[in-house]
Structure formats: structure tokens, C-alpha cells
Amino acid sequence: MSAPVISYGRLVSGEPPDSVDRTAYAAALRKLKSRSSLNYAAIGSEVERPVSTVHGWITGKHLPYARDNDDFATVLELLGARDIDRWMDILFDLRVV
Fold first, then answer.
1. What percentage of the chain carries pLDDT values higher than 70?
2. Helix, strand, coil proportions of the chain in percent (round to 5)?
């Protein structure tokens, strides 16, 4: 199964991907990170989480647990994501897939 195509404009705008697909979600997160001036250490410091945890979330290595929702929402804000509620809804759906 091939990964869905996400329009370049959508990723630039900070909006979440259209579909519930872990690969697309991770790609959108990585694109947000690439456009941010913050490094992983700075993001980790802001949410008081280890750099490895934040890196894992953003690169798609692992999904944040439900207990991490507030911290992950803050990470999304720091990266300039729009429609954070939608990002979180997709994350919830990915957890149950």
C-alpha cells in the first residue's frame, strides 16, 4: 500500500494531513519541524520531556501515549501547527488503528 500524497501547500500551512495514515502524519510532523527554528532540545525543554521522546514523536518512530496529549499539543503549537484539535483527533484515530 503506498502512502497518500499530501499537497505541498497543506504541509507548509501547518494543517494536519487529510487522512488517518501514520506515514502521512509523520511526514507532516517532520515538515513542520523542518520549517521551525527550534531544535529538538529546545522543544524537549519547553515540554520538560527528553529529547529522544520528542524526536520519536516528530519523526514517527512512536506515537505519544494518551497521558502525553497536553505535551504533544504544546509541541504542535511550538512547531506552528494549525487546527491542533484536528491533529489530536488524527492521533487518537492512529492509536486505535
1. 87
2. 65, 0, 35
Instruction: Report the distance separating Cα 64 and Cα 38, nearest Å.
Output: 19
Cell numbers given for 92: 487518537
d(CA 59, CA 70): 18
pTM of the model: 0.82
Cα–Cα distance between 55 and 59 in angstroms, integer? 6
**In 10 A of CB 33, how many CB atoms?**
21
The amino acid at residue 37 is S
Cβ count within 10 A of residue 85: 9
